[in-house]
Amino acid sequence: MAALGATLLLTACGGADGGGAGGGGDQIRVTLVQGLAGEEFYETMACGARARAAELGVALDVQGPQKFDPTLQTPIVNSVVAGGPDALLIAPTDVKAMIAPLTQAKQQNIKIILVDTVVEDQSIGLSRISTDNLKGGAAAARALSEQVGGKGKVLVISTDPGVSTVDARIKGFEEEVAANHPGLSYLGVQYSHNDVGEASRIMNAALAKDADLAGVFATNLNSATGAGTALQQTGKLGKVKMVGFDAGPAQVEQLKDGVVQALIAQLPGDIGAKGVEQAVAAVRGQQVTPSIPTDATIVTAANVDRPEVRKVLYKA
Ligand code: T6T
């Protein structure tokens, strides 16, 4: 079965339409709306969703905005709702701004499954599937503290306030530092708007302001890639320690080049697959699991080439 699963994963990952067996009026139709089209985390999520949809005979459509932005995600959701799928898998790009369009979907009895991020309205989302981000942020704090010898100035670079996942990572990081790492001097959070170039600019400015900066935690893929690029360009390899969330190809290269000391890899493919499973259960009137936390793996230069770690690295 594993081989078949792998085959399906490869097929689906080849961008093949994961439309499942045949067409037919009784086929369950699901749409996945990503937080950001083309980004490795959400493309790996789509890959897992397509593989599971193919196995379950579900017609899966994948769409997403060109930027992680609720003003771009909202018209996509409105268009999807007009098409009337049986279920909607979505990573909402803002805890407040996405409530209105998702309320429309709910009122049309479209089954909503939240993958990765959530909205503040607890009545939206029959299932919430994501990494335990509070735990992930605390793990990042412990890993960074170990890297800097438990002392020195540390900075967090995140995307925007109001994104549930990275907000939880920040909270977990801050609570861990306050409770268990008295030698760290926490400089606070700066926001990259999920833009690699802005994350680099923030990192460069932070290095100019605090020449003795010891470490940085970047809470997501683009923030980490941008901050790592700045460390590379300023020759701070290994001098300023860095822990990043996610494990996209550019991030893994930075890890192998010694720019970044640890990455927290999520399981976006697993999130996507479980999202399809929960959508099918909801459409069929079967039991749905309200909250499904997925695993995370701390990836370092020492373990990155191990088979069990290679399989959690995100697809290009
Ligand atoms: O870290 C992931 C995701 O979990 C988060 O919600 C937004 O950023 C990413 O998509 C990576 O870019």
Automatic annotation (TrEMBL):
InterPro entries: Peripla_BP_I, SBP_2_dom. GO terms for molecular function: carbohydrate binding. It comes from the Bacteria. It holds the Pfam family Peripla_BP_4. The keyword Membrane does not apply. One of its GO terms (cellular component) is cell envelope. Gene3D superfamilies: 3.40.50.2300. Keywords: Signal. The keyword Ribosomal protein does not apply. Residues 37-286 form the Periplasmic binding protein domain. It is found in: Cell envelope. Its main location: other. Belongs to the bacterial solute-binding protein 2 family. This is Ribose transport system substrate-binding protein. It comes from Nonomuraea thailandensis. The lineage of its organism: Bacteria, Bacillati, Actinomycetota, Actinomycetes, Streptosporangiales.
